[in-house]
Amino acid sequence: MNFRTEIFIPKADFKVNHRQKIAMIGSCFTNNIGDRLLKDKFNVLLNPYGILFNPISVAKAVESCVDQSLLTEDSLIYNGEKWLSLAHHSQFNQLKKQEVLEGVNASILKAKPYYNNADILIITLGTAWVYRYNNTGEYVANCHKLPSKKFTKELLGINTIVGTYRSLLKKLKEANRNMKIVFTISPIRHWKDGCVENNQSKAVLQLSVKELVEEFDYASYFPSYEIVMDELRDYRFYAKDMLHPSNVAVDYIYEKFIQTYYNDETLNLLKKINKIRSAVEHKPFNFEAESHQKFIKKTKVFMEQVDKEYPYLDFKNEFEKLLIPT
């Protein structure tokens, strides 16, 4: 008997490999999967604006990276303690205005070659609820704990999201004809909005992405949301807050991602990378022991072989860790 409902995910019509550039943007779930891709030596750029949740802010961030639209001092506000950008995550907040500008603009400049040359762009949408800054009428990415009276809360409509991304996807294709776009919806529930409101929000995102995937043949959908909601239906797959997926759940989703997008060549290289990682993380009882020194020598030879075979990968940190006593 099968005691769970398993999500069937068809093999993607394109494959992910280590020579590609992968750009990832969106909610904190983007970082969950992105960190695993980075650990596996993929060429990934994560969230140049920091963690973003709503579709409009994500689209604006992507467009600014494509156009290399740098922020100016007029874009920043002061909250009484720090300078900040309402278009960015709080990780960019600083005591000095110039430091904020330097941080956000350096990130945009770094992102431009990815968004104009990336093979794959993965967009993770978190919520359709948005906040409009009353002073300007613009949607913000983050309220930065400013007084609620400064904002108006709204639920985006499907037409608004589809219209925004229809323009964005066409622009991305003009800049990079080979780019593949993967949409995902974050399985993290925005409980502060309310249970019903969270479900309404996720439904809007689902229907919006459905229209976009049907319209654009270079866009597709990876069902991370469905994996958690319909396959991992148990609180052991959640973190302590009972809202975010646990590491076990994220590992399972990443395994599904591997099955969907990796070919045999990528899987074979991944085995070699994991072998190197396991060797480097090995903690001997006696670093100076003859047996461990032989182990180091053998591992070093293997790493040099892999490094020579795959010159586009960087094993500098692994070489250093291998030779440092722990």
Topology:
Elements: E1 21-26, H1 28-39, E2 43-46, H2 55-67, E3 76-78, E4 83-85, H3 97-117, E5 120-125, E6 129-133, E7 138-140, E8 151-155, H4 158-175, E9 180-185, H5 195-215, E10 219-221, H6 224-231, H7 247-261, H8 264-281, H9 290-309, H10 316-322
Parallel strand pairs: 1-2, 1-5, 5-9, 9-10
Antiparallel strand pairs: 3-4, 6-7, 6-8
Helix pairs in contact: 2-3, 2-4, 4-5, 8-9, 8-10
Q: What's a quick, concise take on this entry?
A:
It contains ten helices and ten strands.
Q: In the CATH hierarchy, what is the superfamily of the largest domain?
A: SGNH hydrolase
CATH topology term of the largest domain: Rossmann fold
The CATH architecture of the largest domain can be given as 3-Layer(aba) Sandwich
**What is the global morphology?**
globular
Low-confidence stretches: none
Describe the structure.
There is one protein chain. The chain is an alpha/beta fold and 326 residues long. The protein folds into two domains: 21-262, Rossmann fold (3-Layer(aba) Sandwich); 271-322, no CATH class. It has helices at residues 28-39, 55-67, 97-117, 158-175, 195-215, 224-231, 247-261, 264-281, 290-309, 316-322; strands at 21-26, 43-46, 76-78, 83-85, 120-125, 129-133, 138-140, 151-155, 180-185, 219-221. The strands form three sheets. The protein has a five-stranded parallel sheet, sandwiched between helices. Strands 7-6-8 form a three-stranded antiparallel sheet, with no helix packed on it. It has a two-stranded antiparallel sheet with strand order 3-4. Helix 2 packs across helix 3. It is globular, with a radius of gyration of 22 Å. 34% of the residues are buried.
